[in-house]
Each structure stands twice: as structure tokens, then as C-alpha cells.
Amino acid sequence: MNKTVFSLLGCFIFFCGAYFSEAQTREVITLKNQWKFNKGQHPEASKIEFDDSNWQNVTVPHDWAIYGPFDKEVDKQTVAITQNGETTATEKTGRTGALPYIGEGWYRTAFSLTNFDDNKKVLLLFEGAMAEPEVFLNSKKVGEWKYGYSYFYFDVTPYINGKDQNTLAVKLTNIGKSSRWYPGAGLYRNVRVIVKDKVSFEQWSTFITTPSISIDEAKVNIKTKAFGTDLKLVTEIYDKDGHKINAKETETIINNEFEQNLKINQPQLWSPETPYLYTAVLKLFKGNVLKDEITQRFGIRTIDYSPETGFSLNGKTRKFKGVCLHHDLGPIGTAVNKSALRRQLSILKDMGCDAIRSAHNMPSLEQLELCDEMGFMFLAESFDEWKKPKVENGYNRFFDAYAEKDVVNLVRATRNHPSIIMWSSGNEVPDQWGSEGVKRAKWLQDIFHREDPTRPVTVGMDQVKAVMASGFGAIMDVPGLNYRVHLYEEAYERFPQGFLLGSETASTVSSRGIYKFPVEIASMKTYPDLQSSSYDLEYCSWSNLPDDDFELQDDKPWVIGEFVWTGFDYLGEPTPYDDAWPSRSSYFGINDLAGLPKDRFYLYRSRWNTEEETLHILPHWNWEGREGEVTPVFVYTNYNSAELFLNGKSLGVQTKNFKTNQNRYRLMWMDVKYGPGTLKVVALDDDGNPAAEKEIKTSGKPNKLVLDSNVKRLKANGEDLAFITVSAVDKNGIPCPTATNQLNFEVSGNGRFRAACNGDPTSLQPFHLPTMKLFSGKLVVLVQSTENVGNITLTVTGKHLEKGQLTINSEKQNP
Ligand code: GAL
């Protein structure tokens, strides 16, 4: 059958164990399999009779452009990026990733609703469709949307073919110069059919808030809208173990809206450290007949922003240790995948990160669910452009007609996620200039407030002087500054709010495992190999180094946190190589495009992860040809001082000090002369005693391949992914940090090869072919489960290398 049915009954058993309902009042069908896809113009493709037998079989979520090939000509933009301070136009090649996202694409599928009758209402829900989707059901157009990042739905009841097969066709159109990064293309998020009774809850109308919270009790306020007459709402609240802790019946409905208040005794508060979730089950009765039922998870927590205490969660001041993330998932592109998102968040958790900003658009619902569960605060953003263009064919084309609808859908679809602690109505919008922009900022902020009075709104502002002068910055709930560390003090003085957020910080650039000499701080530095140095001292003309933000975070109580640009590299925007082919992905990431940590990961970890030790040495120690030359050594650690040894000889003790921002946050031995061997760092505690040590060694030639998976087991659901890191090591098992061997991958058993990525921003090797070169000695292979349980084996081979092999087990979904 062409669908995955996620029934409410199944949901109860899976999540809550102890309770479930006998009734199955609504059916949510996720249209995943048996889609047909074709790129190109197909004027007849909306018709039932259309012959799509030659089209490609795909599963949705699907990104049609990620399979490449990379091509310099795709979306070549000859522009001056004014927001980067450029005044003359140059040819930008990899700006949107050089992947073939432009053009029309069609998707077709069919589904039958065996339970359909005249009492049913059917919604067709898209959680994102890139871009300008036009939706046809049984040859008729049911509606369209514009913004590729929006969630939207249509009531398609009048178009349904009774119990017979329904033909769904979706046309998507992407035009050039419509983005500043790789947007992806196609049905990249889930498409769902919701079949329910006509007497039912209105989609996204449920809003659960917790207006008063004390140690002893919390008030849970539930508002929801329903269609029908003589209705009764019964709400049950369950704790995380599935025990019912309260219930309430209400028959009063005013203007189609129910409102209830329920008490929870001794509430467990949600926080990144304790992501406790409750579940509300809302049952809609007409007379005594159950007509509809929805489950809604929620959390209990307070948020507060004030000049006295900055940002506080549950009454405790804290600063956001956040990162900005683009929506692409590297080698699988924008096709949403929960296990890929979970892996990203696990890596960030280990770094001590506690907050995410969805730059610069609506997050996937899967990412929000994971942030609720794993404990991340979320800054949910909506737009990169308002009415004034940044790119010729950007959102400016839709702003007037769609901005309100897009914000409404964002807020209504996501406002019950406890992880969301702030909205953002825009990023560096050119409307920061001029009085019209101030009005737009206010208009948008008011829409957010109307839809959700519980959370503040920010804008990532880069035109700081302009927004100080115009009043734009003064009206924001939370003034967010992108970079401009030298203006923080002035903005704090001039703005009335009494605090500032680093809505975007750092934009430091580096390539994993690549180091450049001499080691020096530099802006927009470029090299012939189109890489950036991992000494983490290179940044952009508008940005700064991590240490400059750390200083503000540490010294200014009124700075409420930062969101670093970016947690992971992303496709497109290859600054400082915007006009240098073949650069096609970013250098900003703390982790590379494959999700492998760059050195900067440990710099942030040494500050943010306060539970675990960080002791990291850079660079690698394979510098044949640099013998006797100055090769500085940095150590990122949460210890205050350390002693460095090269082949047993002390190179002295370094202690963090206030000479420069770098000296304050990094231990640096600037005069080390390279010689092969062992570099050892011994961290010292506050009394000067050895507390921990770490060493790295010069390796010999690559001899064999070593595999390491991020998970031990996969779910046999056809979607789950294992990320297997492949490293070349020498005959003694020492990692070879400069290896670039071409490797081949083979997957056998109940899984399949999905993609590979080495994190090299200049690589033009396609992600989906089972062969790729190592970059700085490593790459990552993605292995996907099938729906069959059993073993999956990945074998990796390369010329003159002992092969690497790893087996993981794929198990039933709910063992
Ligand atoms: C910011 C912008 C981001 C990204 C970044 C690169 O100005 O908001 O989207 O372009 O610069 O440094």
C-alpha cells in the first residue's frame, strides 16, 4: 500500500505504554513510498490519466538536486553581496551549492481512503515543499503556496474520489537567484493525509500554555477549536511514564473555542538538562460519541527576559550557548531525516551547546521534536528577506501576500514545543533601512504576539547604526545583533531593552585538518588550495573570532548569549571563496559537512561542556618538509594551564591570561619548531599538579582503514541511518591526518549505501556514489536500513590498504 499509516492507537502504545484508546477516530497517512518524480515541464502531469510509468520511483522526503552533478554554471550569480560589504559585482559560482535545484519538478502518487464517507473531512498537509508548490488532486488544482520553507495544508474533502484511488500531483518551481545558499528542491519534508470526522478539532488550533508555575503546582491552560455542535472536550494529562495525572471535561465552547485549566502537582520542569515532557490527550465528544482525538506533548517551564536578570529559564539566569543551523543535512541534502538530525544534536550536546537557531527559516517539525526530547532551546526563525530584496528572486516577491500566512502557520504548528523560547521574524533584512522597515518589524512582531503571547520576538540585525537611529532596534522584544562586537556597548546604551542577544556570532572559517603558516589573525584570507586554516584565526570582513564573543559573554552581564555561525558546514555560501570554483560549501561550521568535528569544536566544548574534560591539541603532527620550522601548537582545554612536551622535552608551561582574547581562551605555544615524533600535553590543575594528558604522534603511511559507527543498532524502518566514520591509520594504528586515498564502499545484508561525505568544501565527487577520497584522513559513510531486520555490513576498500569492515544490526522498530 502506498502509505505509512500512523494511527493514533499505535501512537499511544508506542509512546505512553500505560494508556490507550479503543477508538481510532482519525488516521494520519504519511505518503512516503511509491512516488513518481520527473524534472521538467509537464503540462498534463496534473491529470489522473497521465502516464508516469517512465518517471523515477522515489520516496519522500526527497531532494531532487542533491544527486548533482556539481556544476559551476548552476545559478551562477554575478552580484555584489552588499550585506558582506561588497561594492563591485563578481561571478559567484558555488553560492547556492552548484547543485541542479533550478527548474520545474513534478511528483505524482496515488492513495485510497478505504474509510472515507460523507462524514469525513480530509486534509492534505505539507511540512515544506521547495518551492512554489501547486497541488492537484484527481486532476483538479486544490491550492498553491509560495515559500518553500512553510508548513501548509488544504482541506481537500471536495476533491476526494470516494473510496477509490486518488491521484495526487505536485508541481514545484525553483528559479535562479532566489537564494543565498543551497535551498534544496522538491518534496523535502513529509506529506500527510489526515482523515477525520467532520466533527473534529481544527488543525493547529490547540495551544497549551503553563501560565503559573510553582514548586507545588502548575496551571496548564488548554485552548482548542473544534467544528460541530453539542460538543464536549475531555482532556487527560499523562506524565512521561504514561501515568494519568489529571483529567477534565468541558462543555462550554465560545466562538468554537474550548478553554480549560488543569492542575499538575509538583511539576517536573523542562530544561535542556531535564527535558521532561508531559502529554495531553484531547478527546472531542458529540453527545457520548467520541469524534476526534489528538495527543499533544508539552513541557512546563518559565522563560523571562529582563534588564535585571537577562534571560532566565525556570528562574535561573543563563546565557544561550547556541549555534545557527541551516536546514540541509550535508550529503543527503535537504531531505529531512530524523536520525541525521539526531546525530547532529548528539554532537552538539557533547559540545555543551544548549540552543539552536533555525537560520533563516522554519525548522523541520522533526528537529523541534528532537529538541524537546534531547533538551535544546530553540530560536525559530521565519525569513531572510522581507519586502526589500537581498537576492533578486527571493522572498521579497511574496512578502505582501504571504508574510502573515507564513508566520501564522509557523506559530500555530509549533507553539506547543517547550524548546521554542523565542521567535525571529527576520535575519539581516535590508528593511533595517528606512521607516517602512520599522513599521514592517512592528507589524510582524504583532502577528507573532497575537498568535503566541508567551514568547518574545527578535530580528538578527547587522545594520546596527541604522537600527539605532531609526528605532527599529528599540521596538524589538529582544534586540539581536549579528556580529559587530565593537558596537555592542553602544547598542546596549541606546536600546531600551537593557540586554542584547548575539543572534549571530563568529563566522570564523576553517577546513577540517588543514593548517596554514605563518599562523596569524586574518580577515578574508584565501589560499591557492581554496581551504581555510584550522588554527581558527581566520574570519570574514564583517565578523570576528570566537574569542571576541567569549569576552562579551563573560564580561557583560547584559549579553544574554550567542548563536554561533554555524554548528555544521552547509551547502552553498563558500565564503571566503564565493567567487572561486570549485568551492561549493561553507567553511563556517564548527563541524564539517560530514559532521566531523573541526578543531573549533573543542574550543567551544572547553567553555560550554562544563561536565566533562576537554584537552585537545592542534595541529596534527605530520609535517614532513617542515622540520625545524616554526609550527605553533594550540591546546583547547578547560584547564587553566598546561605543559607541552615534544619527544619528551618540555616546551614550557602556558597559562591562560588576559594579554589578548586568544591568550584568555587558548593555550598557545607559538615558537615550537617541528620535528617528527610525539607531542604531549599535560594539563595542570590549579595547584600546578598534572591532572590529565593527551598526545598525538607523527604517523607513517596509510596502511589500513578503521570504521566507527555513531550507532550500534538501526531501526528496520527503511529510513534510519548509521554514520560510519572511516579513518586511515598506519601500521601501528596511528591516524594518518593527511591521507587522501580514494576509497570504495560496499554494503551487504539488510541495508543500503546511502551517501558519503569527506567534508572537503571543494570536492566535486557526488555524495551518492559508493566511492570517495579521504579528506584529512577521514570521511563518513551513511548506511540506511531497509524494512528487513538483520545484519548490515559495510566494507571499505582502497588501493594498498587493508580493508575496513563493520557490521551493525537492524532491528524491529519497537523492540
Ligand atoms: C550573516 C548572515 C548569514 C551568513 C553569514 C556568513 O551575515 O546572516 O546568513 O551569510 O553572515 O558570515
Explained architecture:
With 815 residues, the chain is mainly beta. An 8-stranded parallel beta barrel has the order 24-25-26-27-28-29-30-33, surrounded by 4 helices. It has a 6-stranded antiparallel sheet with strand order 4-3-7-12-9-10, with no helix packed on it. It has 5 domains: 4-13 and 201-302, Sandwich (Immunoglobulin-like), CATH 2.60.40.10; 26-65 and 101-197, Sandwich (Jelly Rolls), CATH 2.60.120.260; 319-506 and 546-576 and 600-608, Alpha-Beta Barrel (TIM Barrel); 623-697, Immunoglobulins (Immunoglobulin-like, Sandwich), CATH 2.60.40; 704-811, Immunoglobulins (Immunoglobulin-like). Helix 2 (338-351) crosses helix 3 and helix 4 runs parallel beside helix 5 (435-451). Mean pLDDT is 95; it is low at 1-23. The chain is globular, with a radius of gyration of 27 Å. The longest helix has 17 residues, at 435-451. It is built from 11 helices and 49 strands. Beta-D-galactopyranose binds next to loops.
Produce the secondary structure layout:
Elements lengths: L3 E4 H9 L10 E4 L4 E5 L16 E3 L18 E3 L10 E3 L10 E10 L7 E7 L7 E4 L2 E5 L7 E4 L9 E10 L16 E7 L9 E7 L3 E9 L5 E8 L5 E7 L6 E9 L12 E9 L2 E10 L4 E4 L3 E4 L2 E2 L2 E6 L12 H14 L3 E4 L6 H10 L2 E5 L17 H16 L5 E8 L7 H17 L5 E5 L2 H7 L1 H4 L2 E5 L5 H7 L5 E7 L15 E2 L14 E2 L6 H10 L3 E7 L33 H10 L6 E4 L14 E5 L3 E6 L2 E7 L5 H5 L1 E3 L8 E7 L5 E8 L6 E6 L3 E3 L5 E9 L12 E8 L1 E7 L13 E3 L4 E8 L4 E9 L5 E8 L4
Parallel strand pairs: 24-25, 24-33, 25-26, 26-27, 27-28, 28-29, 29-30, 30-33, 31-32, 42-49
Antiparallel strand pairs: 1-2, 2-13, 3-4, 3-7, 5-6, 7-12, 8-11, 8-13, 9-10, 9-12, 14-15, 15-18, 16-17, 16-19, 19-20, 21-22, 22-23, 34-35, 35-38, 36-37, 36-39, 39-40, 41-43, 43-47, 44-46, 44-48, 45-47, 48-49
